[in-house]
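Q: Joint fold for the lines below.
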Amino acid sequence: MENAEVTRVTVIVNGEPHAVVVDNRTSVLDLLREKLGLTGSKKGCDHGQCGACTVLIDGRRANSCLALAVAQDGAEITTVEGLADGAGLHPLQEAFIRHDAFQCGYCTPGQLCSAAGMLTEAGPSAVTDDLTADPSLTPGEIRERMSGNLCRCGAYVNIVKAITAMAGHDGSQA
Amino acid sequence: MTRVEGPEKVTGAARYAFEYPVPDAVYAYPVQATVASGRLRAFDATEALAMPGVLAVLGGVTTGTFGMENFELALFTSDAVTYRGQLIGAVVADTLENARAAAVTVRARYDPQPPDAVLRPGHPKLYRPEKVNPGMPADTGYGDVAAGLAGAAGRVAVTYTTPVQHNNPMEPHAAIAAWDEAGALTVWDSTQGPTADRDTIAAVLDLPPERVRVISPHVGGGFGSKGTTRPHAILAALAAREVGRPVKVALTRQQMFTLTGHRTPTIQRLELGAAADGALTAVAHDVIEHTALRTEFAEQTAACTRVMYGTPAMRTTHRLAPLNVPAPSWMRAPGETPGMYALESAMDELAVALDMDPVELRIRNEPAAEPESGLPFSSRNLVACLRAGADRFGWADRDPRPGVRRRGRWLTGTGVAASTYPARRRPSSATADALDGGYVVRIAAADIGTGARTALAAIAASTLGVERDRVRVELGDSALPPAWLAGGSMGTASWASAVAAACEALLKDGSHGSADTAEDVEGDSGFARHSFGAQFAEVLVDPLTGEVRVPRLLGVFAAGRIIDPQLARSQFIGGMTMGLGMALMEATAVDASAGCFVGLDFAQYHVATCADVLDVDAFWIDEDDPHLWPGDGKGIGEIGITGTAAAIGNAVYHATGRRVRDLPITPAKLLGAG
Amino acid sequence: MRTFSYVRAASPGEAVGLYRPGAAYLGGGTNLVDLMRLGVAAPDQVIDVTGATGDSISESDDGGLRIGAGVRNSDLATHPVVRERYPLLARAVLTGASGQIRNMATVGGNLLQRTRCPYFQDTGMPCNKREPGSGCQATAPGADTEHLAILGHSPSCVATHPSDMAVALTALGARVRLAGPDGDRWVEMPGLHRLPDDTPERDTVLHPGELITDVELPPPPDGRSTYRKVRERASFAFALVSLAAVLDVGPDGRVRDLRLALGGVAHVPWRAHIAERAARSLPATPETFARAAGEELRSARPLPGNEYKVTLARNLIVAVLEELAP
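A: Joint structure:
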């Protein structure tokens, strides 16, 4: 019975490099939560179906439960713990508080990382009429783009309000 | 108000059960039965024990001693397999990956029996339970229902069905258990009630309660599934005792479908009769649902009918079929959720039969007192909710004709339904202390997303006459003064009185106050206390594809005094959002031959996504109810879901002329035969 | 999950050279890791090919498009040439999964993703696709068939292929380049995926060790095109039935060219050849479309519980073609 195959990788999490020896089976999510003490990213389903584990990998939002740590050598990962600069809050985090965009809070880190990634994703979505133009982030566009993040408490209405406020505030446009 | 724990939640600093840095902890992964019925004949852990990192394997049939009989929690003491997914063991290993890899190598053998997992009318084992949750009679009635129906100008006799539904909170059930050298147990659990959870764990493990501590300051949703102790917590404790180290257990999403409860399916027969002017002459609501073979839970599906409308004759009955299913239990607004769907849909059918506006039909039947019991309502403002909602929604001048309005490829329609939920409170205790220029309130309450921490801080601050930021609330720990669990919309009502009383006592004393509301609560009687509401839905239905979308959903509620508008609105809308999912997409399929639930994940059990939720809004009418309790709140966590599915179903009828009487209303149903 | 060795390949040749029975190629991981965690897939070696195949999109000399198998789904959908000249493909990809998954998933992996049949995914259930000869729980009485096949299924397997992108590529007549132990070859779509017959364990015509390196599109077809996906909720769900359609109507009002591919109905993205033939050269009217749809679905054999898909497929063809007709 063979022991776990392991590999040495270096991941840069929230700007800090971590050289770790990982069990090849370990997901980025479990690496963050169980080995690096970064429990902000959440496990909701472990199969890419709920988005609670969303982080940014090399600047793009991804489900960390489906990313094998061994395949992310050299990757730059941003988690909810790294969204803010220093001691303050990221504007998205502030907007979520202001608009009561969470209840139990478990999907919230994933919502925030997903929103942060989404705001940098230019291009059309499944609800965009004219594929050739980059649409502006209407509430309808935001809803579609955030549909990879489930919220069982049903805070969607306020999540969309918070992100809409953000999208206007920093001038982001898809 | 913004939530007290907001900064922790948005920065990822808030810890949930699995996330506490307990040193030296290892992992347990469940082993589940793969047959739905029979006996466990053999449990062979030889291969598993040889796998890398494995410390122990629990399970099979053991002679473990427990302090109480409980089929779900006295783990591994019975060879009876009564549902697929039942816990038969667990592997304990140094890492998650090693525990899981070893778990699949455990060889279990069964003497299988043909399973019976499908609810159907006329099931040979249907029986009447002694009581329905939480303690009401299964059958009630008064007057002559048959005569009332026979003499009715308008009559409706219909059967509505709802599927198995799952709570599916975003945070899977999880626990970390650690024993100290003196044999005291600490469990970081995800629970709606630290006191109750502690009491149950202690009872099951045959420990005095003071030797067990449950810690649960943040809970990632529960919706009822974390209101009672679940097997993962006992498993963690047993495993920790076995290996002499703390053990972490987190159920997978798949495991949650069989190990954390669900809402029973229902088959509901509604018979309504009314005079030509809409006055009800008889109401009969007969319910069939399921329960597990070894654990009874009887959902109080027809209980809502006992309080809603005035009628000279009424009958409500509940019958249970014991099946090879996991034990059903509380899911958001048990009873009212499926029951109001059927009642409020049947009322809509009655309005159509009478050619009467559905809002007016309800107003016509507003009762003077609670119909079944005769008790006076402490306050009831359903009519005001209906009128205010109709006004906001633009209900006046509604053309009642079904199937005649189009918007591009869509048919459009609107519907209305009432909502209700009982208002109760249970004994709780609290302390308040002056500390470092501020105040600390302690109570073993739970904040499962309701904002309880924030609401209680506000109540304490208001009682003490200080700014909210001078009050800190400690909750979520069984070491704190015992409190009722967060459930049944009773949390805030139960805790608010205790917190207010403790603060009042502090004001008298100067530095410390404590309170226990048990005596007061016993005095709560003599009135029927309920929240009411009215929900309005606008739907789009594509008749060619069967797609249904809900561009507008509106709720107007009367639920006593609202503590904070922002928190309240989130609760109402959250409930309505879950109701939207219930109406259009939520169902766990049951495989008849295999005798089990199938499709056990979020890809197959669809909950509403962000794109499904468009214009959903909630308003309320403040009620000044002198017959409640300090805080004057009626609880709002559940009423939102109770009227949504019927409002949407009624709107689908109005859009299409088709009445779908089986949830969820999916394209398959709209396109299917008939 | 079974333990496995991990290795990265820098080229198709290297990947194919590393391949041996028991190995699996890893793209974005959005399907393979899912299946490994379920215990459905249990490779003992994982060969990461995200850097082995091209991740760029370029226009070919004949006016077509060459797409590297390593291109991420979201990059495919938002590429200016795809949006401009193959909107059908962009739309199909955009309706798939979630933003996070589209960022991770590769084109190659998307084509090879496996069915989401609930019985396939549950290793405790009999499934001929997972274990040939073990049986098919989906065809037992009282099974959950709501999302399973109505066309082309066999007694062995009634699963459907879940990819939206593959449906669009099937309508567009894409071809796929494979690198393999015996050299390179091209496979046309339709034709990459196969019907289950009595060997449902093979989803595609790929030989063991073959690796998708590129997808090539011919020049865009004339006419108007769209992708419609019908699902139970507004987003983040597999299709109940989906349709990729290209309709070209001549100045005489007759159908000059028609391409139809259905998703959610079969083990393969279903190219509706019969409907296409039935409508060609006829007036582009609802009657023509309805007759063509009826012809195509004549051979449908719904399961108890998914009869609605026949109605839905028929209605979808008619509605979409009416929308595309001038």
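Q: Anything notable?
A: Chain C has a mean pLDDT of 98. The longest helix of chain C spans residues 308-324.
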